[in-house]
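tool_log.txt
---
The assistant was asked to compare two proteins side by side. It first ran the structure predictor on the initial sequence, then on the second. Raw inputs and outputs are pasted verbatim so the downstream comparison step can read them without reformatting.
(1)
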Amino acid sequence: MASPSLVWFRDDLRLADNPALHAAAERDEPLVAVFALDEESEGMRLLGGAARWWLHHSLHSLREGLRERGVALVLRRGPAGRVIEELAHEVGAGAVYWNRRYGAPARAVDAGLKSSLRAAGMEVSSFAASLLREPWTVTTGSGTHYSVFTPFWRACLSLPAPRSPLTEPRTLAGTTAVPASDALDDWALLPTAPDWAGGLRETWEPGEPAARRRLQEFLAEDLPSYDRARDEPAAGATSLLSPRLRWGELSPFTVWHEAVGVDGAGGFLSELGWREFAWHTLFHSPDLATKNLRPEFDAFPWPPLDPAHLDAWQHGETGVPLVDAGMRELWHTGYMHNRVRMVTASFLIKNLLIDWRLGEEWFWDTLVDADEANNPFNWQWVAGSGADAAPYFRVFNPELQAKKFDPQNLYVSRWAGDAPTEPIVDLAATRKAALAAYDEVKRAPRPPARG
C-alpha cells in the first residue's frame, strides 16, 4: 500500500526550485501538500497586516498551481509541530519533507517535529531553499560568525557557486482521499473593517507566476541601469523582488543564476548578499528584533515617548517632504523605496529620538516584504546598534537627500504633494540632540558583546 509523501510549505510558496517538493516527486508516491498557519508556537512572531494580505493571495496562487497538477493544498491552523505530526499520522505518511527555516523559534519547532516523526518510523528530510549560504556554512578564519558585511560577502563569493535551481516537477500525484482543510477565507487574513488594502491591490499581484514575470522584466528592463539609478526613488530601477523572496515565490538560487551573467549585475547581487547577511546575523542573535546587537546602546538615553510625534511619522505628517512621501508610499502600497527607508528610519530615531524598536514594529505591520531577519537588521543598522552599522553620528538629512536623489521633486510630489510643510521638529537642533545622546553611550561602561 502506498505511503504518501507529506510536503510542508512555509516561506517557500512556489513549485519551481522547491527542494522539498522535488524530493517528494522523486519518491514517486502520492503527495499531500500542507501549509500550517502557526500563531501559537512559543516565540513565533505574529504576521503584520500587510504580510497577512500577501500571504492570503500567495497561498491562493500556490493552491491553484498545485490543483492544476492534481494535488490539493491542505490548510491547517494551530501550533505547527502538532498540526504537521497529526496530519502525517492521519495520512499514513512514509516521508515528510520541508525546506529549512533559520529563526530560533522555527528551528525549535522543526527539530522537535523531526525527532518525533522519525521515532514513529517516518523518513524526514529538510533542505536548503531560501538562502544561498546557510548561516553555519560561512565562518571567519577562527570559526566564528561575521559581524561586518564586506568580509562576509567576500567569504561567500569565495565558496563554490550556489547550486543550480531545480526544475519544477513534471508530474505530481495527489492522494485519492484528500484530508480535511480549512477554508482560506476563514483565516481572515484580509482586512475588512476597514478594508485598507486598496493600494496593495493596485500595486501587487502576489504568487509565483507574477514573481517569475517580474524577475524577467527586471532583468531585461531595469538591471542594466540598476547601479546608476537604484537610489532614485522616482526612477523605478529597483527590482521589487523583496516580497517575492520573502514569501519564497522565487528562490534566491533562481534569481542568482538568472542575474549573474548580466552585465552590471554586481551591485544587485550584493543586495542579495545583504539579505544573506541579515539572516546570518539573526541566526547567531535570535533576539535581533528586541535587543541591541551592540549592548553599549542599552545605555542610550531615549526621552519619554511623544505619541504625537510617533503618530505624525507613521501617517506621513511630519512636515518633512521626503519623510512624508516615504511613509505615505508605505501606507498605500505596503512598500517603500530602500533609500527612503533609510531616511525615514533615521528621522524617527535621530531627529525624533524615538526608539528604533517602535519603528521596526510599524514597518513589520505595514511592509509586504517584512521578515524576521531583514526588518530588525536594517533598523539596527540605521540606529547604529547593529552589525556593520552606520555610525550613529551619520544622520540622514532628508532635505539634502531629497535634493540629491529626487532633484525634480517627482517622488515627493507623487506621494506627499498635499503634506504639511512646517516640520514638527528643527532638523539641525534635533541632530545636535541626537549626537549629545550618542556621547552618553560612548561614556557609558561597555558591557560584554552579545551573540
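(2)
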Amino acid sequence: MIKVDHLTKMVDGNKKEALRGISVQFEPGEMIGVVGPSGSGKSLLLRCLALREKWSAGEYTWEDKMVIRGGGKGSQKYRSQCAYLEQNPSLYPDKTALKNVLIGQAGQTSALRRVTGMVRSDDYMGAMDELEKFGLLDKAHVKAGKLSGGERQRVAICRALVHGANFIAADEPVVGLDPHSAERVLNTLRSLCAEQGKTVVAALPIELAERYCTRIWGLEEGKLKLDVTGRRLTAAEKRSVDLV
C-alpha cells in the first residue's frame, strides 16, 4: 500500500499553496487517472508523487516504510523506483531506442555509461526484452529522433522499467498523439498494472481516464475533490471539479 498524508506544496517563495493537504492511499496494480482543469495542480501532484519535487509538508509511506516525513524529497533509494513520464519524453535523439533504454536519464546511471553507452550483456538482453514486449523490437536500432510520438513514449516506459521503476507518474502521456498511438500507449500502461503489479498515476482527459483507469482522482485548486473507483463520473462529480 502507498499512503499520502497531508501532502502540501508551497510555491512562489512559499507564498501560495499549490497542493493543499492531499491525503489518499492506493495499492500496487492500480491505474489512476488524475483529472481537473488547467492549473489545478495535476502536474505538480505527479511530480511530488514521483519524488521529483520537494514536499513542503506531509508524509509518504510505501508498505509501511517512511519515504517522506514532514516534507522533503525522499532518498535516492526511493527515487530510483519512480519514473516521471513527460508529455515529450527526454530521449537522446541521436542515439538509438536501445541505447536510450540502456543509458537512461541523468542520475540513473554512471556518467561513463551515459556518455559511452557501455553496458553489461544482461542489461542489453533486459532492454531488448522490454522493447519486444511493447512492440518496439524492430525500432531497437532506430535513432530516437526518427521515432513517432507514441514510439518515444513506449521507449520511455521501457527505460523506466529497465531502471527498476515500480511507480510511474505520467503527465498527459498521449497529448498530441493520433488515436491509434494513444490507445497503444495507454494499453501499455494498463498492462503494466494488470500483469506486473506496477502502479501508474496519469494526468488524462476525462474520457480517457474513464476508459482506461481503474480509479479516478479529481483535482481542483490543489485539493483532491474526488476519489472514484470502478466507474465513470456523474455529471455532478464532473461539475465539482470544473470539467463541464
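---
observation on (2): The longest helix spans residues 179-196. Residues 105-117 have pLDDT under 50 and may be disordered.
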